[in-house]
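Why this split exists: single-chain examples teach little about how molecules sit against one another. For that reason, every record in the complexes split bundles all components of an assembly together and asks for one structure covering all of them. Below is a record exactly as it appears in the raw files.
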Amino acid sequence: MAKSALLKSSIVKKYWMALTGLFLCLFLAGHLAGNLQLIFGTNLQFNQYALFMTTNPAVKLLSYLTYISIIFHAIDGIMLTVQNKKARPIGYAKTDGSSSSFASRNMAVLGTVILVFIATHMVNFWAKMHFDKNMPLMVKEIEVQGNKQKFYVGTETGQYYPVDQVAKEGEKADPTTMMPKQFVIKNKTELYYSQADVKTADLYKDLHKLTVDFFKDAKYGLYFTIGYVLAMLALAFHLWHGFQSAFQSIGVNSSKFTPVIKFVGKAFAILVPLLFAIIPIFLHFKK
Ligand code: HEM
């Protein structure tokens, strides 16, 4: 490719990387706000939030945009790195002191660490929430006439169903009991009357329990927690350079705005990964 064409394609790639990167920063802020409920919210609030995130059409659209942005950002990043290696010197349009920092020299490595993190993270949470037949349903213990009983929780206020009265889909009737169970679960979360085949409620999936159990796991919980903290360190370095670099790539570059963008970028790069990292630490050590 001619040098000018290479430069042009490199600038276009940087532009798209910047746009997808900034969109992913918005995703991170939203994801963090939701996840902080693991510290400050109740089980029910977190599961309500998870249900909203997986069913609201506008949020679903944003989720698809997120997946596309991650793929686009990663592919563009790999292509740019390869291109830059082949045809040096093509640096950022403007260089300053920060462009030779540890972060700026290692953006591709840091990005790869984050990509591996996102892939394993989605297998552990997102895929289970969306596709796993054995995803736990939310159960609440309530005291009834002095005895603690377990109830499945419906998505409408006040819907509680005794666990011992609910059969799993395809569960064989217990030959030792005379009474068949009153309800049966179908399609993972739908509760039906077992005799009339009438739907009576939608039950909450227990993403809260799944997340807490993951970080509290007796054998691997500590390793998962350390892994998350290290991934957040990589994210911090990636954002440290990436945030301000994105604004340069889309052409926002002035003596008035650049210092503000640099400050906001550095604050974002420290605060967001730090708060994300506190969540697994909190869950792992919580009694
Ligand atoms: C460290 C604390 C974090 C926790 C506890 C956490 C937890 C979760 C959970 C429980 C889900 C499943 C939600 C659902 O499917 O509705 C999820 C989804 C996801 N997480 Fe995280 N997360 C953390 C950090 C991150 C970070 C730092 C990133 C990106 C670098 C990230 C990227 C994603 C993505 C892309 C999804 C799929 C979102 C969607 O479907 O819209 N997470 N996370």
